Amino acid sequence: MANTAQARKRARQSVVRNQHNSSLRSMLRTAIKRVRSAIVAGDKSSAAETLQKATSVIDRVADKNIIHKNKAARHKSRLAAAVKAMA
Fold this sequence. Notes:
The chain is mainly alpha-helical. 84% of the residues lie in helices and 0% in strands. The longest helix has 37 residues, at 5-41. The protein is elongated and about 60 Å long. GO terms for molecular function: small ribosomal subunit rRNA binding; structural constituent of ribosome. Residues 1-23 are annotated as: Disordered.
């Protein structure tokens, strides 16, 4: 348990930050799943549209250091390649 006032405050802050970061991470995963499901559905225009929205979400999450910028780039690259490879 935190013994100093500073440590108690840090513990409170970390709880709030953890909740916020978890919601952003969840939003990221949902955006990626939406693109993947659009790809499986086979509708290229819908997949391209959801990819554009997902790219925005991925960039936002990476800017806030929730995920590393290289991980964000990897997600965007693989999703874009999958959409491009659609027949």
